[in-house]
Amino acid sequence: MSSTTPDGPGRGEHRVVSASRDVAADTATLFDLIADPAQQPRWDGNDNLAEAEPDQRVTAVGQVFRTTITQGSVRENHVVEFSEGRRLAWRPASEGEPPAGHLWRWELEPLGPSLTRVTHTYDWSQLTDDRRLPRARATGPEQLRASVDRLAALAERG
Question: Where is this region: Disordered (predicted)?
């Protein structure tokens, strides 16, 4: 399932997009893949992440984890939502700068012992950096679904 939410009147853009899927894996397995930045390049459906240093496992709001994108620059990701096994969201920023206003969120809903509904959301409704707008506009439910599908493939393999 994919969805878009239009941003305020007059904008005519969908600045909140999401994709959901039921995955044959438990929430702990899925969350470990999401909350470990070193694992994120393995399931990134945008093909934007090159690598992340190990030992950055997210455990709380307020943490900042660093990733290197395919263009070579470093992103500092500010964790703004966290509930172990259930929810993780961060706001990316260029190195040494405040977050630009977009947010990546993962939500996990257990449906059984080894079945989880995974929802991935990209919210760029508060994005202020005009240089990032073309990339934000190009990120739709299809890219989010690709991330969910890659994550599912990793988790279901065990």
Answer: 1-21
If one counts the domains in the chain, the total is 1
Identify whether 5 is part of a domain.
no
Residue 6 in this model has a pLDDT that exceeds 70: no
- Domain containing 153 equals 15-157
Helices (H) and strands (E) in the chain, counts: 4, 8
Name the nearest CA neighbour of 116 among 152, 88, 90, 153: 152
Instruction: Return the residue matching tokens 């393999």.
Output: 157
Query: The whole model's pTM is what?
Result: 0.90
Q: Give CA–CA dist 28/73, Å, rounded.
A: 31
Q: Are 67 and 51 in contact (CB under 8 A)?
A: yes
CATH of the domain at 67: 3.30.530.20
Interval 89-124: pLDDT, tens:
999 999 999 999 999 999 999 999 999 999 999 999
For residue 10, tell me if it sits in a domain.
Answer: no
CA 71 to chain centre: 18
Contacts of 42 (CB under 8 A, 6+ apart): 33, 150, 154
CB 77 within 8 A of CB 97: no
Classify residue 89: in a domain, yes or no: yes
* Residue 4 located in a structural domain: no
